[in-house]
Amino acid sequence: MLEGNRVSRISVRGFAVASATAVTAVGSVVGVASGSTAAQNNDAEATAAGTTLLADIPAGQQAQVQTASLTQQAQTMAIAADATAKKDAEEAARKAAADTAIAKKKEAEKAAQEAKEREEAEKAASRSATRDASSFAAQASYSVAEVQAIARQMVPADQFQCFSNIVDHESTWNYQAQNPSSGAYGLVQALPGSKMASAGADWQTNPATQIKWGLNYMDSRYGSPCGAWEFWQANHWY
Predict the structure, then answer these.
(1) CB neighbours of residue 23 within 10 Å
(2) What is the 8-class DSSP label of residue 4?
(3) Angle, vertex CA 233, rays to CA 231 and CA 237, nearest 5
(4) pLDDT of residue 53
(5) Bridge-partner residues for 59, per DSSP?
(6) 3-state SS class at 136
(7) How many helices (H) and strands (E) does the chain have?
(8) pLDDT band at 135, cuts 50/70/90?
(9) How far is CA 15 from CA 9, 26, 49, 61, 172, in A?
(10) Of all helices (H) and strands (E), which one includes residue 63?
(11) Are the C-beta atoms of residues 156 and 123 closer than 8 Å to each other?
(12) Rounded Cα distance, 60 and 180, in Å
């Protein structure tokens, strides 16, 4: 039974059957055959019958068992790999979306800043193109058209319409208009009219001086003639 220190390839089942047979045989000789012995033999036979070793399986079936095991392992690994790849893809998509959103935000901010700079440059250019009151020669009198022509050269182009709207309502472009009740005077109806002396001593007779004062007033109090016009529309005074 022994070869070196190695047990032969007898199966557990075979060993159990042989042992049970030997016990039965000995029991018969000594006259000790009993129900308990038979039961033990049956238990040993049943235990041995339920035990299967890889060595008991034919070589071809062994290969099939090993192949099935490897296939199951490969499938498990593939499922895990798919889950990891899906997770990585979702993370990459989220990162790409975040990067795109950041890039678009930066582009929008840049475009807004450029637009603001262009607007400021246009305003500066418009203001630099205007003329000061002192550049107009004084006249004995002025028509409405002449007063408006002076205003167009003094008021920034993008603010002229708002300035014109206010003057239309306040004096209808009459630089000598005077309110008998309040004493307001001139194109922009300064109250009192003497306020316009800060722009020139000829404030009573020179529309350019009145325009200069009115423009400064609107800029300082409302930010611009359009700001003054917006306030005027809501309150009917400014």
Answers:
(1) 15
(2) T
(3) 65
(4) 53
(5) none
(6) coil
(7) 7, 2
(8) confident
(9) 10, 17, 11, 23, 127
(10) helix 59-128
(11) yes
(12) 123
Position 121 confidence tier, pLDDT thresholds 50, 70, 90:
low
- DSSP-derived letter for residue 138 is P
User: Cα–Cα distances in Å, from 177 out to 48, 90, 144, 167, 172?
Assistant: 128, 75, 12, 11, 9
- Convert 165-197 to b/e letters by CB count within 10 Å (16 or more is b): bbbeebbebebebeeeeeebbbbbbbeebebbe
- Say how far apart CA 135 and CA 67 lie, in whole Å: 103
Q: What are phi and psi of 2, to 5 degrees?
A: -100, 135
Sign of CA dihedral 57, 60, 66, 68: negative
* pLDDT digit string, tens, across residues 25-40: 334 333 433 444 444 4
| Burial (CB count within 10 angstroms: exposed 0-12, middle 13-18, buried 19+), residue 236 | exposed
- Residue type at position 137: A
d(CA 86, CA 75): 16
Q: Which two tokens stand for residue 103?
A: 């890039």
Most distant CA pair in the chain: distance in Å? 160
Candidates 208, 95, 204; CA nearest to 150 is 208
Looking at residue 86, what is its pLDDT?
86
What is the sign of the dihedral through the CA atoms of 14, 19, 22 and 24? negative
